[in-house]
Design goal:
By secondary structure, this protein is α/β, with parallel strands linked by helices.
């Protein structure tokens, strides 16, 4: 996707809790986008119901990834 500033945005959606592997998967997608578009800023959005402890730890230093939670009613 592209945001309002024309930056590339990789989005990873997980059912239930996201793990450290989900963060790594999103970083892999972001790296591929950056390789293909070296002059464009790339950021990520991880969407999940919750984060497990390892995902929380990984996201503490992943400054270009935003976590968004959801609930199902």
């Amino acid at each position: 996707a592209k945001d309002s500033k024309n930056n590339l945005v990789a989005i990873e959606l997980k059912l239930g809790a996201a793990t450290r592997d989900a963060v790594g998967q999103l970083q892999s997608y972001m790296g591929a986008l950056e390789s293909e578009n070296p002059d464009v800023f790339v950021r990520g959005i991880l969407v999940a119901a919750t984060l497990d402890a390892s995902a929380e730890a990984a996201l503490r230093i992943a400054r270009d990834i935003k976590f968004v939670s959801y609930t199902i009613a």
